Amino acid sequence: MRRNIALHKTSIRNENAYYGCVMQLLDYSSVVSKKTAEVDQVLDEAAKRKSASNGSKRKIMYVLGDSHTVPLSWQEISFKEDVYILQPLLCTGVKIWHLRPESSFFTKVNFYNILRKIKQETSGNEIIYVIMMIGEIDCREGFHKSVERGTYASVREAAHGTAQLYFSILTSLLPLFPNLHLLIHPANPTLSPTFASVKEFNSSLRSVVRKGSNPRISLIDIYDKLLNADKTALLDSLHLDGTHMNCHYVTILEEGMQQLSRNASILCLSQPHIIGKNCLL
Predict the structure, then answer these.
(1) What sign results for the dihedral spanned by CA atoms 236, 183, 263, 31?
(2) Cut 0.90: pTM above it
(3) Do the beta carbons of residue 188 and residue 238 sit within 8 Å?
(4) In this model, does residue 16 exceed pLDDT 70?
(5) Which has the closest alpha carbon to 128: 209, 183, 190?
(6) How confident is the model at residue 111 (pLDDT cuts 50, 70, 90)?
(7) How are beta strands 58-65 and 76-79 bridged, if at all?
(8) C-alpha–C-alpha distance, residues 84 and 78, integer Å
(9) Are 132 and 91 within 8 A, CB to CB?
(10) Confidence of residue 144 (pLDDT cuts 50, 70, 90)
(11) Quick one: how far is CA 46 from the chain centroid?
């Protein structure tokens, strides 16, 4: 059917795109963590191990964002002393621009519904880690349009303004979710036409997060590790379908997370007043 009908031009174009992405990811079976039935089994095991008094435990780490969450779905990573299963929380088509206070776009409603769902499914004082994967669509569709409309004077200004808006939005979530720790994933450099915009945005994002210095919001600083030797494009080994990365990159993500943990440990030891809920330790 997909060969005979231009499904990308129909009302089910998103479903068709997700199907194509998932089918290609299944070709990387050597690193796809679990099939659906196996995921259920692993989650059951994780719940049972939650009450264990020692040893490494499998826990859930959420991945909230657009379709770039799909390659990370149900992968396992090590972070600090635990093993986490990455549970996708898909918010199709979400942009940072949609989440601004004055917006009422449906993706914003979905975004906050997802956060409420996380809150309902978690309890106690355990830290909730959420990897945020939002921004690539802003780079692809938003920056140039905002310049054309006169919202920003240049793409650079649009990238920096969007990074500031993103950090402001994430900061506003923290009082609502006391145990929430947000781990920002850089925008993925998968498309050649928007590579310059993605580079500008990720540079601004690094600067804004560093300047904001909120111990509950961290940047997983792996952008440079996703690029080829001359830093002009995505590594050939990470390509999937021209829009997304394949799941081989989970090893790069894991390395970035471990570095983040080491950096947080140094920060907390040097600034003991932030140890506790406000520390990644």
Answers:
(1) negative
(2) no
(3) no
(4) no
(5) 183
(6) very high
(7) unpaired
(8) 6
(9) no
(10) very high
(11) 22
